[in-house]
Amino acid sequence: MGLNCGIVGLPNVGKSTLFKALTAAPAEAANYPFCTIEPNVGIVNVSDTRLDKITEFIKPQKTIPTIVEFVDIAGLVKGASKGEGLGNQFLGHIRQVNAIIHVVRCFDDENVVHVHGTIDPVDDITTINYELALADLEVVEKKLLGIPKVLKGQNKEAQKLAKIQQPILESLKTKLEEGIRAENAGLSEEDAIAIKDLNLITMKPVLYLCNVDEDSATEGNDYTQKVKDYAKSEGSEALIICGKLESEIALLETEEEKQEFLEAIGVEKSGLETLTKTAYDMLGLRTYFTAGEKEVRAWTFKAGSKAPQAAGVIHTDFERGFIKAEIYHCDDLFGLGSEQKVKEAGKLRIEGKEYEVKDGDIIHFRFNV
Predict the structure, then answer these.
(1) pTM check: above 0.85
(2) HEC string of the chain?
């Protein structure tokens, strides 16, 4: 599994500029609404110093990092759920991602028009969230309309599910009508699982990304504080990023040059690194490694996964035919200096189906199908 994020926001908040900087992939950016018509997709290697360090001890023919996919969705406006602007064709793209990166304009620039004519981050957020809630409302209402037919049908399993879903959807319908995100509608874990097949946009975790000018890149400003307060009120997170600086970093060719640039502006990590780590934590994602002469590779898995489920990330056959796993932690490799010394120290273990994989584990799976 990989990390898949949809970048959303109003027109002219800097989404496409940030997308280009984060992914170094071409995306049209212009000073007018709706310049992004088809969603741009960028695949980015996830920086992980542990992966680089493993290759120092186990010399592979190739190194494969895990990836994150960013999808740049066209700017939404009031009425998008009803077809205003470029309409709800773009809301379909948002349904396919794991998480939403909501870019919010937190800078003043008279040369860049604002679709509402004034800078108000909270109002901008409310506009987008309301449109996403209305889009989900349409899905919920359609599902509710079909339930009576299912209840009269002959499929007992479908009837059972419909009876469970009906009260959940009726309660959710009221919340969505008020513009409340499904994620914040008070659903229990069981309720969320029961309606998972609807793939609601507002059930996806959201990270607010405050796009600021260069002067606010490290400390933020009054706008970013308002966004942080809003995010906290709904249990979300907010990050500060400067699209202009990220664009300059993206033009640098080597990691050394990028690090020197970051140090010069007083920032420890690039926006991409911070964004990726935050998104991973938000989704409960972790990384394990496979290592050998042919390749050293990073794999993304869900925290709490047992060994067979983690093996399934590589291939379903690995999960289906799982026998056992040879495991040691990357810290043991770093401390002892070689896989042989890890074995001699008794740090390499044989684990079965109930082992809960840890972040940083180096694993060799044994399976048979």
Answers:
(1) no
(2) CCEEEEEECCCCCCHHHHHHHHHCCCCCCCCCCCCCCCCEEEEEECCCHHHHHHHHHCCCCEEECCEEEEEECCCCCCCHHHCCCCHHHCHHHHCCCCEEEEEEECCCCCCCCCCCCCCCHHHHHHHHHHHHHHHHHHHHHHHHHHHHHHHHCCCHHHHHHHHHHHHHHHHHHHHHHCCCCHHHCCCCHHHHHHCHHHCCHHHCCEEEEEECCHHHCCCCCHHHHHHHHHHHHCCCEEEEECHHHHHHHHHCCCHHHHHHHHHHCCCCCCHHHHHHHHHHHHCCEEEEEEECCCEEEEEEEECCCEHHHHHHCCCHHHHHCEEEEEEEEHHHHHHHCCHHHHHHCCCCEEECCCCECCCCEEEEEEECC
